[in-house]
Predict the structure.
Amino acid sequence: MKYYLPEEDLQQILARTRNLWPLVAGKSILLTGGTGFFGKWITGAFIYINRELRLNAKLYILSRQPDKFLSTYPEFEDDAITFIKGDVTNFGFIFEKLDFIIHAATDANTAINNDNPALIFDTIVEGTRHILELAKDKKVKSVLLTSSGAVYGTQPVSVTHISEDDFFAPDVLASNAAYGEGKRVAEMLCAMYYQRYGIECKIARCFAFAGPHLPLNGRYALGNFIFNAINNQKITIVGDGSPYRSYLYAADLVIWLFTVLLNGRPNQAYNIGSDEEINILDLAGKINNLAEKKLQVDVKQVARNRDMPSRYVPSVEKAKNELGLKVYTDLDTTVKKTLEFYRTTTTNTIA
């Protein structure tokens, strides 16, 4: 059987979530954002586990262009999968029965956020409102909202790992605030629907990730550096390399998301990410060391923020303590597996 994702990763996902799947047997799930990086991993894992455990579960995937997607990714043709053509803000409630929703729609693309912030804000807010109305209409058991660490705004340099109890926020006057502020409003809508209608919405505040099929032309330094490495280009650091980031492997991400959906507390937010921090300069060096050919690392700015570097690193103690989750794949392995995938595959996610 050919799978879209590495089979060893699918086996690990199943092994670490096996106790959850009886809750899904015979049930139906709606996934928005099913054609993005998150969605592909969620869908690939669902297909594998549904077959392995014979769950007889159904997954509906909302997409603006399902035919185009399936022509590119035929691995997602499966009897348990139904694609629905539509927009997250206004698609019709055609389901006879619906048990769970994973709302993973909305592009965090920096260009969209900067060029048309009103569009991204409206899509996040109105899309979430539409999903919650569907959940109310169908009496859905649980909704997972994939939110973002962007809801915290700029992480103070004095805070090494930001937690769910840190009440920071985006600067609403900043040009790039629409995405983070939209996610804050989406979370608030979830709380309103829980308080008024009892909709059990769980919130996953997602940080940064890596793994097979990560778009390499996106906003994450790790993806950009891997693109440089597999194309034997110099690795370019736009800034001075001092900011700290962390990256969770995609298979770990799926384990965490399904655990929060099926076992998380309603009306609660959980940080989703790795707490293994690394600065951008060291990340470039790590990728360079693992590349087949040693490359030049070009740092565009003179080091000036070494004493007070910016940070985007979560504390994940809540997920660990409440849900028994952990970072299963360390950063070295994450980078190696991502690099190896792109060395041995041809895929349109590279461009």
In short: The chain has a mean pLDDT of 92.
